[in-house]
Amino acid sequence: MPAIKYYFSVLSPYAYLAGTRLEEIAARHGADITYKPFDLLTAFGRTGGVKPADRHPARLEYRAQELPRQARKNDMAFNLRPAHWPVNAAPASYAIIAAQAAGGGDLGALTHSILRATWAEERDISQDAVIREALQSAGFDPALADSGLLTGAETYAQNLEDAVSDGVFGAPFYVVDTGQKFWGQDRLDDLDLHLSGKL
Predict the structure, then answer these.
(1) Average pLDDT rounded to a whole number, residues 155-168
(2) Which of 132, 135, 169, 186 is the most buried (most CB within 10 A)?
């Protein structure tokens, strides 16, 4: 069974634009996904990247065109300047980590629900009520928002170290157990082809 480590930030618009395509690809190939939310902004500093606020205006201008374009391409609602961004990513990340440990629900749906809350619904994913609703709608116990905070913090920190060790420098980032790496939601078709043995 193929295994995919999925590195992402709950603040990433590109992770939102991935939708649930990773889960669809994994199901098609019988692949196992390990969800690894991590501190992307810290990773930028450790891997030669630049935080969005510090990027050259030309890069920001391109981002402002590319994000809505990709949203239209995938028929997804999208707000380029959401009311609640950036916010503290830790609570939502900890909830995803706790849900993965607990099992019993749909992690892909949970992750996408949290991302959609920011980029399409103008909701604040650092708020307990938003996280609880996302947990419940994905089939998890909403009380997971309050449990395992220490473990969540430790895992979140370890995910950053794992990301740097695995050569991750952006999000979303997919690392297959074959050693192949795919950066960006626009490389999901290549991931699919790789798992098919065609790439």
Answers:
(1) 98
(2) 135
Q: What is the pLDDT of residues 182-198, one digit of tens each?
A: 999 999 999 999 999 99
Helices (H) and strands (E) in the chain, counts: 9, 4
- How far is it, in rounded angstroms, from Cα 183 to Cα 168? 8
Q: Phi and psi at residue 198, in whole multiples of 5°?
A: -100, -5
Q: Name the DSSP letter for residue 198.
A: -
Find out whether 140 and 99 touch, Cβ atoms under 8 Å: yes
| Residue 143 structure tokens | 């009380």
Percent of the chain with pLDDT over 90: 91
CA dihedral of 87, 157, 183, 26, whole degrees rounded to 10: -100
Q: Is the CB of residue 168 less than 8 Å from the CB of residue 9? A: no
Between CA 160 and CA 119 the distance in angstroms is 23
The C-alpha atoms of residue 195 and residue 191 are separated, in whole angstroms, by 6
The pTM for the full model equals 0.96
pLDDT in tens, 100-141: 999 999 999 999 999 999 999 999 999 999 999 999 999 999
Give the residue among 4, 38, 9 at the shortest CA–CA distance from 22. Answer: 4
